[in-house]
Design goal:
Distance between the termini: 55 Å
CATH class of the largest domain: Alpha Beta
Strand order of the largest sheet: 9-8-7-6-10-1-11-12-2-13
Strand content: 15-25%
CATH topology of the largest domain: Alkaline Phosphatase, subunit A
Helix content: 25-40%
Oligomer: single chain
Radius of gyration: 22 Å
């Protein structure tokens, strides 16, 4: 009996040691940040020393894509690792082209639920925008605590804590500071146990209103003021991790939910397009992952990647078998990049379906460096297609002149490695490539339908 008790004590202690060794995760998502809008991505004016340092000490992705080109489906993809169409999404965002109270089904497995099931404290600070009902809010989707907004900062004036309104109206210009303060509070509370923190800033989403202490500080207008404040606030959070000796025990991820909003003073060069388009400027966003002593420092990762890949990648990094957690509905489309980041395996993702945000069917597919628009209208006109340089505009003018109105148009084929602005059509030169990509997209969409689609949840859908 004494030996049995000893073994039990040893086992319990070993389990406690394993739990203590689990890395923390801080997942930061900002809103409508352009690909170029950080110093480490080449912006000539914006000063982002904190994120530049994060990139210098970690991995900077150069072909990373948001889960969708607009808020709600992008966040669905991030949280579940699945194409948002698997979750019943067809167009728009909650409150625009979707019902105000529409949200992601509570049956969907989220990243927060995966980490919570492994003993992690789970907290969220910031914008949710994938459901505001009792069965779709953050607390119902795996988060122990939530402080923030249920929708975008232009759609609501209510700031909530765990479903209860605590400010109405909130001050938009103070939100970045408030979300950071809450994130720091969460770290302090859970510093002695593994935690998963999702910090989802509303900035630099419109309306762009700088904090009083940051107004006029940047050389890039109000947009620059807001972006540089985000960088500073992240520095405050990272100092808190350092204070408690958690820097080397914490994986930090930074990304944006989609490209810049039309009309916003943002930059996504050399890419064309913006939010609400399947062009590279609408979907390709900054992404940095850092974990000192565990990830290579200063590495540039060029592989085609998606926000959907973060769920399996972070799970693998933390020793969690995400495949066993999944029920299969929705099927997880994300692929773990953990081994390939270390150079121990080939990059796994070869293809990616892309939507512009206003249609249930995808408008484009990437396969390696090749990109096909099934109808060239989606690369030339409509929301999100007007962000272009003068040179890009001149190159695509001939294609715009040949567009047919109100009827299908021929495909557009680009090689984005050689033509990042998506200005030179190669469909006539490589017709076999067009056929292959069309066929692959059709196959993928049929597989999604065959796998089963979770319907959206909302008061009118029950």
């Amino acid at each position: 009996m004494k030996r049995l008790l000893t073994l039990l004590v040893v086992f319990c202690c070993s389990q406690m040691f394993v739990a203590a060794e689990k890395p923390n995760v801080v997942l930061v998502m900002v809103d409508d940040l352009g690909y170029l809008d950080l110093g480490c991505y080449g912006h000539p004016s914006l000063k982002t020393p904190v994120l530049d340092k994060l990139a210098a000490g970690g991995v900077r992705f150069t072909d990373f894509h948001s889960g969708a080109t607009v808020c709600t489906p992008s966040r669905m993809a991030l949280m579940t690792g699945a194409y948002p169409t698997r979750l019943g999404w067809t167009q728009g965002v909650a409150g625009y082209l979707m019902g105000t109270h529409d949200g992601m089904s509570g049956k969907a497995l989220t990243m927060a639920e995966i980490f919570k099931s492994e003993g992690y404290a789970t907290g969220m600070s910031g914008k949710w925008h994938i459901g505001d009902q009792p069965d779709t809010d953050p607390n119902a989707q795996g988060f122990d605590s939530h402080y923030g907004l249920m929708m975008s900062n232009n759609q609501t004036k209510e700031l909530l804590r765990d479903g209860k309104v605590i400010e109405n109206p909130f001050e938009n210009r103070l939100l970045t500071e408030q979300f950071t303060t809450e994130a720091i509070r969460f770290v302090r509370k859970n510093k002695d146990r593994p935690f998963f923190l999702y910090l989802a800033h509303t900035a630099p989403h419109f309306p762009v209103e700088p904090h009083p202490d940051w107004k006029g500080k940047s050389s890039f207008g109000k947009y620059g003021d807001v972006v540089e404040e985000i960088d500073f606030r992240l520095g405050q959070l990272f100092k808190e991790l350092e204070k408690f000796g958690l820097t080397k025990k914490t994986i930090v991820v930074f990304c944006s939910d989609n490209g810049p909003n039309p009309g916003q003073q943002a930059d996504c060069l050399p890419y064309r397009g913006e939010k609400w388009s399947a062009l590279e400027g609408g979907t390709r966003v900054p992404c940095i992952i850092s974990w000192p002593d565990h990830l290579p420092a200063g590495k540039t990762y060029p592989g085609l990647s998606s926000a959907m890949d973060l769920l399996p990648t972070l799970s693998d990094a933390c020793g969690i078998d995400w495949r066993k957690k999944s029920t299969g509905v929705p099927k997880i489309d994300g692929m773990s990049l953990w081994q390939s980041i270390h150079g121990k395996a080939k990059h796994p993702r070869k293809e990616l379906l892309l939507w512009h945000g206003k249609d249930a069917d995808p408008q484009s597919i990437r396969v390696g460096d090749w990109k096909l628009f099934f109808d060239r209208r989606h690369a030339l006109q409509g929301s999100g297609t007007k962000r272009r340089t003068k040179e890009q505009a001149e190159k695509i003018a001939v294609y715009e002149q040949g567009l047919k109105k109100d009827q299908p148009n021929p495909p557009f084929l680009f090689n984005v490695a050689k033509d990042p602005g998506e200005t030179v059509d190669l469909s006539e030169k490589f017709p076999e490539k067009v056929t292959a990509l069309q066929k692959r997209a059709t196959t993928l969409m049929q597989q999604i339908k065959d796998d089963g689609i979770l319907p959206l949840s909302g008061p009118k859908r029950k």
